[in-house]
Design a protein that fits this description.
Strand content: 5-15%
Distance between the termini: 28 Å
Strand order of the largest sheet: 3-2-1-4-6-5-7
Order of helices and strands: HHHEHEEHEHEHHEHHEHHHHHEHEH
Shape: globular
Structural class: alpha/beta
Number of helices: 17
């Protein structure tokens, strides 16, 4: 059995009370939402409803089975929230001790949005300058050259040749990742941190990666790590779709966190904020048939499990962007839906590794119907068996809590407080029917016109202010980062984004989300 090495961070007693309060608070929110649903039903139907009177009513009673079908999703989210560590030494910005194991941030993009890739590269360098906990390099893997990308010892632009192909015919992101494996100079003991083109790292993420690496026994096959992703960049300009992605934040903290605490990949895997040692990544590689490349991250994770690799949760968080248009939102979900079903049905691994993915994707397939059914059921008042009715209320309450929790964590991290926070939270709850409709439309879209390619969501680059480069830089890592940034402009150094530095208030008491 693996004996995980303690590094005195994640289990730190200083944060135990804070984490307990967060868990209790989350469960209390769930209970309050559940009570509100039960109260609303009692107000609308004070006699607990009416018996079925016609065929439509009988169909409504039969439809209650959809509640039971998605209860595993609710249980997994509740389990994850109940053990979530929101405050750790990593998120608390403890200095910690640097490690000497190298890390390569690998950013994959087409290259047709150079300003976004450059902003991500500068964000990595700036954040590492503030918290240099390990030696690092940056690899930007693109189909097109990125004009204006900083160059030097720290940054490499690996441009995938137009004629490059793999034996199995990998496409899109998987093809680029396999090219990086084939050509990157990093050695097998280097840790790879996978990021999307718009991923902005944080100091907590750096500390979380350090903790994850330090906790692994170098003599054994290390676990693959993944952590929390927030989506609040562009909240003011893209409010509706940013709030629609709140469900992804709480899902990370719930069922995804739960699966990684079990050291398994049960429900899928994100392609960003993935931490893997290079020899473990190369063990499977990214050469896979085109149909497996629709969600190459989940296919790769399934193959890793078949090979005996385990998984772990990484403290800290990365900040990304939500889709900019409703059509991009639908196409993004469609790609995930089709790709996950392919993995559940056809991935070349034993059924034991695919069964949970098949269950979770089935839940996604019918979940939207259950949520619409919940609303119809409240207003129709048809009596269903009491245990089934309670299951439906639990599922509905979990769904509302999911959006509310995701929004709360994102707003706290972004520094939105007071009336503005209350306004966003109210908007989040009021718009849940809209978000449900969008998610339902995506499933119908996927069933009617399945994804056959790899839709890339358009991103926007943040505006950046400039300030003079400081003359004194105390550490080698900081000197390297400053040198990297000066390749853009010799006399200036970028700082934080305007939207977070100027437009927002400081983070509220209680710290930042992890």
């Amino acid at each position: 059995m693996r004996a995980r090495r303690s590094i005195g961070t994640t289990g730190d007693g200083r944060f135990r009370l804070h984490n307990v309060l967060f868990r209790v608070g989350t469960i209390l929110v769930f209970v309050a939402v559940l009570a509100a649903i039960r109260w609303a039903k009692a107000v609308i139907w004070p006699l607990e409803g009416r018996p079925p009177e016609n065929l439509w009513d009988e169909l409504l009673v039969f439809g209650s089975i959809t509640w039971a079908m998605i209860i595993p999703w609710a249980v997994a989210d509740l389990a994850g929230w109940s053990i979530y560590r929101r405050r750790t030494a990593a998120t608390h910005r403890d200095p910690g001790d640097p490690i000497d194991r190298p890390v390569c941030f690998r950013v994959v993009a087409r290259g047709d949005q150079p300003e976004v890739v450059i902003a991500t590269t500068l964000n990595i360098a700036e954040t590492m300058q503030r918290r240099p906990l390990f030696p690092y390099t940056i690899e930007v893997v693109t189909d097109l050259p990125v004009p204006g990308l900083p160059t030097g010892d720290l940054v490499t632009n690996l441009v995938v040749p137009a004629g490059y192909s793999t034996p199995m015919g990998a496409t899109h992101k998987a093809r680029a990742l396999q090219y990086a494996i084939d050509t990157s100079p990093v050695d097998d003991r280097t840790w790879i941190v996978h990021l999307d083109e718009e991923s902005h790292i944080t100091e907590s993420m750096i500390a979380g990666v350090r903790d994850h690496i330090a906790a692994e026994d170098p003599s054994e096959r290390p676990r693959i790590g993944q952590g929390l992703i927030l989506y609040h960049r562009g909240l003011e300009d893209n409010t509706i779709l940013t709030l629609a992605d709140s469900v992804r934040v709480a899902d990370d903290m719930g069922r995804f966190h739960f699966q990684y605490r079990l050291h398994r990949m049960l429900f899928g895997m994100h392609g960003s904020f993935v931490v893997a040692r290079n020899d473990v990544e190369r063990l499977i590689g990214w050469d896979m048939p085109p149909e497996a490349c629709i969600t190459e991250d989940t296919t790769w994770a399934l193959l890793q499990m078949e090979a005996g690799t385990r998984f772990a949760w990484v403290d800290g968080y990365v900040v990304e962007q939500s889709p900019q248009t409703p059509l991009d939102f639908l196409r993004q979900r469609r790609r995930w839906f089709v790709g996950l079903w392919w993995g559940a049905l056809h991935a070349p691994v034993r059924l034991r590794y695919r069964i949970s993915l098949a269950v979770s994707t089935t839940i996604w397939s019918v979940g939207w119907m259950a949520l619409f059914y919940s609303v119809i059921r409240i207003f129709s008042g048809v009596i269903v068996p009491a245990p089934i009715a309670w299951l439906g209320d639990v599922v509905f309450a979990t769904y509302i809590t999911n959006y509310t929790l995701g929004a709360w964590v994102s707003l706290v991290d972004k520094g939105v407080a007071g009336f503005a926070r209350a306004r966003y939270l109210a908007l989040q709850v009021v718009l849940v029917p809209v978000f449900t409709f969008l998610e339902a439309a995506a499933v119908v879209y996927a069933l009617a016109r399945p994804e056959t390619g790899f839709h890339v969501v358009r991103k926007t680059a943040p505006e950046r202010r400039l300030r003079p480069v400081p003359t004194a830089v105390p550490t080698a890592a900081q000197r390297a980062a400053a040198g990297l940034l000066r390749t853009q402009r010799p006399d200036v150094e970028p700082v934080e984004e305007v939207e977070e530095a100027d437009a927002e208030t400081p983070p509220a008491a209680g710290g930042r989300a992890s």
